[in-house]
Amino acid sequence: MTDELAARHEAAAIARSLADGDPAPMNALFADIGCPPPSLIWNPRPEDLELEPLRFLLDHWNQRRGARPMPAYREIDPLDLRPVLGSVSIVEVADGGTDPVYRVYGTSTAARMGVEMTGRSLWTAPVGLKMRIFHVAAYLAVHLRGEPLFTHHVTPTRRPVGQSQRIILPLANGGARPTHLLVGIIPGDARPESIDDPQPH
User: Fold this and answer.
1) What is the pLDDT at residue 194?
2) pLDDT digits over 125-142, tens only?
3) Is there a domain that residue 80 lies in?
4) What span, in angstroms and rounded, lies between the C-alpha atoms of 186 and 70?
5) Bridge partners for 185 per DSSP
6) Half-sphere exposure of 116 (CA within 13 A, CB side)
7) Domain range for residue 162?
8) Spatial separation of the C-alpha atoms in residues 38 and 58, rounded to whole Å
């Protein structure tokens, strides 16, 4: 089995566990990297989110869905998201749910990360393989569970960012399972140099 195929299987397994409410495999992934486990909150409340752009996005999603489990993909109007648009990405869960693709990648996020991911699979992101597994697993878990997820993680490298907070919100397209994800990503400042920082993976 190739490293990439093994990584896809690992991401899928972690996603299933996370969707079932078990963060242990995700925490073990971060232990392998040498980072503290990420904060993972299903169905976060506004008070669980310290950053206003993420609260704004959650409130907008709730308004759009009403009494439904989630709003429709076509109900999301970029004009309504202007206050936070640079931090907003749209992910399509393609290839049977194993290959999330950024259909839109927020301009502010791209500038901070130094990479444009629009139209690209998450498996091509210029980060270590373990971090790709983390990001893919988080998106697949929301695809499986159909509920919002907040993540806050420390990155294994100091630059260009030292941490990142994110909310992942499911969007339907005529069926019960999400086909797209509305994602708010707020990268944190780079960490100062430290001999205790973990090495990239």
Assistant:
1) 47
2) 988 899 999 999 999 999
3) yes
4) 22
5) 166
6) 3
7) 3-187
8) 20
Does the residue 193 lie in any domain?
Answer: no
Has residue 9 been placed in a domain?
yes
Give tens-digit pLDDT for 165-187: 999 999 998 878 899 999 999 98
CATH number for the domain that contains residue 169: 3.30.450.20
Confirm if 40 and 150 have CB atoms less than 8 A apart. yes
Q: Is 84 helix (H, G, I), strand (E, B) or coil?
A: helix
**pLDDT greater at residue 160 or residue 74:** 74
CA-angle at 129, arms to 149 and 121, nearest 5°: 65
Q: Which amino acid belongs to residue 142?
A: V
Number of domain units in the chain: 1
Residues 6 or more apart in contact with residue 152 via CB below 8 angstroms:
38, 39, 163, 164, 165, 166
Euclidean distance between CA atoms 165 and 113, whole angstroms: 13
Quote the pLDDT of residue 15.
97
Torsion sign, CA atoms 61, 163, 41, 140: positive
Does some domain include residue 195? no
Amino acid (one-letter) located at 40: L
Radius of gyration of the chain (CA): 16
Q: Is residue 49 within 8 Å of 151, Cβ to Cβ?
A: no
The model's pTM is 0.90
Q: Tell me: cis bond preceding 160? Omega within 30 of 0 counts.
A: yes
User: What average pLDDT does this structure show over 57-78?
Assistant: 94
Token pair, residue 39, equals 């904060």
